[in-house]
Amino acid sequence: MAEVVKLYPAADPDEVLKHAIGVYDSVVVIGWTKDNSMSGRISLNIDTADALLLVELFKVALLSEAVE
Q1: Residue 66 CB coordination number (10 Å)
Q2: What is the C-alpha to C-alpha distance for residues 44 and 59, in angstroms, rounded to an integer?
Q3: Residue 5: pLDDT band by 50, 70, 90 thresholds?
Q4: Which of 22, 39, 40, 64 is the most exposed, fewest CB within 10 Å of its CB?
């Protein structure tokens, strides 16, 4: 069985980020800017290969409906 990925939806992206403070060891943030450009950021303690792995694992979880 796949590990469950929890989503914490909120109407405001700033609110989502606020609730993530202090929760994670490393992060990948992907989103649309206010001028409709895609933008991404990763924490300094994760390399690009691990960032890509994190994105792919999350994608698999979303596609397999293992999201709660």
Answers
A1: 13
A2: 22
A3: low
A4: 22
Residue 11 corresponds to which tokens in the numbers above? Answer: 């109407």
Q: Cα–Cα distance between 39 and 31 in angstroms, integer?
A: 6
Half-sphere exposure of 47 (CA within 13 A, CB side): 1
Taken as a whole, the chain contains a residue count of 68
Question: Residue 37 phi/psi, 5° resolution?
Answer: -100, 145
Task: State pTM to two decimals.
Answer: 0.71
pLDDT for 12-52, tens place per residue?
Answer: 889 888 888 999 999 999 999 999 999 999 999 999 999 99
The count of C-alpha atoms lying within 13 angstroms of the C-alpha of 41, restricted to the half-sphere facing its C-beta, is 7
